[in-house]
Specification:
The chain has 422 residues and is an alpha/beta fold. Helices cover 57% and strands 9% of the residues. The strands form 2 sheets. The chain has a 5-stranded mixed β-sheet with strand order 3-2-1-4-5. Strands 6-7 form a two-stranded antiparallel ribbon.
Length: 422
């Protein structure tokens, strides 16, 4: 059944202190305009303005705005109306359809947004109608992901700084599952940030520092190893320069300590909130997805089942599906660069961790045998897993490897163990 055309559409040009609102009818005629403040009084004015022009609980006026975040957008979504977050670049291109003078104003931008909905609403996707719980999961999961990225950035800065004057510290904590972000490294370096101070650490002091960091096993072995490394002959900076660099390391360690604590606290809160969502059981049934990675996936997918038309739309959104550029005799296939970067990041971790399961591993090996590089094979595995996840979420089913990955896949690989034996 063909949808009825929108009679009135609303465009809002957003800014930090005020917003310009424009309402146009089905012919593109401006029927109302208003500048509202970014507070409760401005929201009240907006609601009254919409009501004056036909806004009704059964027929809510759609709104176009250039952002998907903020209190105004949150309040608009809470009313249940269709809210479209239009990319500012798309708005600029649409503006050029009507004028080439490059004139620009807040009111004109609001009208442009309203006209985009009037003419091309079918070509834009409204914000999903996610539940309150999944929106909370998205806040926590994204914050935790940002904290992890911030922690790694600080660790890289610390590594670069230590290389300038204290390479022995890098050697001391270059151990499997132990790095500069570990509690042992942070505790020892905070107490002895220079080669001179580290060389003076006694076995008793090192033992106390390691135990204070929370380490319980192999403390004596660690004590002997650290003391031997710190007392080795090494190149040194000038004394005053070395002390200054040590103070800089201590300041950086304070930031790293806060980042590590934030990442750990947010991880705990994210896992706890994610466990309350009904989709958690389906998501964590997939190999490679635990509470934290599963929460990141759910945060980007949401729980609005109508958000993606099919699995192909989801794969394009995640950037796992390739994109084809064809012109005349030229045909080039690339991986997508415009995508949800957060979902793509967790997709790499997910696909890599899933290789412990037979099905994903056979699929990955098959892609490698076909000539794909490691990153391409992982992206293809992620693409396959996303399609399975879409099906399972739509039908509320848990992961079944026999259905997701055909047993014949292993024999299809020319370098498989079966074919080599033959």
């Amino acid at each position: 059944m063909k949808e009825a055309p929108m009679t009135v559409t609303c465009g809002i040009d957003w800014s930090e202190k005020h917003h310009d609102v424009a309402l146009v009818n089905e012919t593109g005629t401006l029927v109302a305009k208003q500048r509202i403040s970014d507070d409760a009084n401005g929201w009240r004015v907006l609601v009254e303005l919409l009501a004056e022009h036909g806004d009704h609980p059964d027929d809510l006026i759609p709104v176009a705005i250039e952002t998907s975040r903020g209190l105004l957008v949150s309040c608009l979504r809470a009313t249940g109306r269709m809210v479209y977050a239009i990319n500012p670049l798309a708005v600029a291109r649409y503006r050029e359809r009507h004028t080439v003078a490059r004139s620009k104003s807040d009111h004109a931008d609001a009208m442009t947004l309203a006209n985009i909905l009037r003419v091309d609403a079918a070509h834009h996707r409204p914000l999903p109608k996610d539940s309150e719980l999944v929106q909370a999961i998205a806040v926590l999961a994204r914050a935790q992901q940002d904290a992890v990225w911030n922690r790694q950035q600080l660790a890289n800065q610390l590594r670069s700084l230590l290389r300038e004057y204290f390479p022995a510290a890098l050697k001391a904590f270059h151990v499997k599952n132990i790095g500069l972000t570990s509690r042992e490294a942070r505790t020892v370096l905070q107490a002895a940030p220079t080669p001179g101070a580290a060389a003076k650490l006694t076995a008793r002091r090192l033992h106390a520092l390691l135990r204070g960091s929370g380490r319980q096993r192999n403390i004596e072995t660690w004590t002997d190893r650290l003391q031997a490394i710190f007392r080795e002959e090494q190149l040194r900076q000038l004394p005053l320069v070395e002390d200054a660099l040590g103070r800089q390391v201590q300041a950086l360690l304070l930031q790293l300590e806060a980042a590590c604590r934030a990442a750990d606290d947010l991880a705990e809160a994210t896992a706890e909130t994610f466990g309350r969502h009904p989709d958690a059981a389906v998501i964590t049934s997939f190999p490679g997805l635990a509470d934290l990675t599963g929460a990141r996936v759910l945060a980007e997918l949401g729980d609005d089942r109508s958000r993606f038309a099919d699995a192909r739309a989801l794969k394009a959104y995640a950037g796992s599906a390739p994109i084809t550029r064809a012109s005349g005799k030229s045909l080039v296939v690339h991986h997508r660069k415009v995508k949800n970067q957060r979902l793509a990041a967790v997709g790499y971790v997910w696909s890599f961790a899933s290789l412990r399961a037979p099905g994903p591993r056979a699929h990955y090996d098959h892609r490698r045998a076909e000539g794909d590089r490691h990153s391409s094979a992982l992206r293809n595995t992620f693409n396959r897993m996303l399609g399975c996840l879409y099906h399972c979420l739509q039908n509320n089913k848990t992961y079944n490897e026999l259905v997701a990955f055909s047993p014949r896949l292993g024999s299809a690989c020319p370098n498989s163990a079966k074919n080599r034996a033959a």
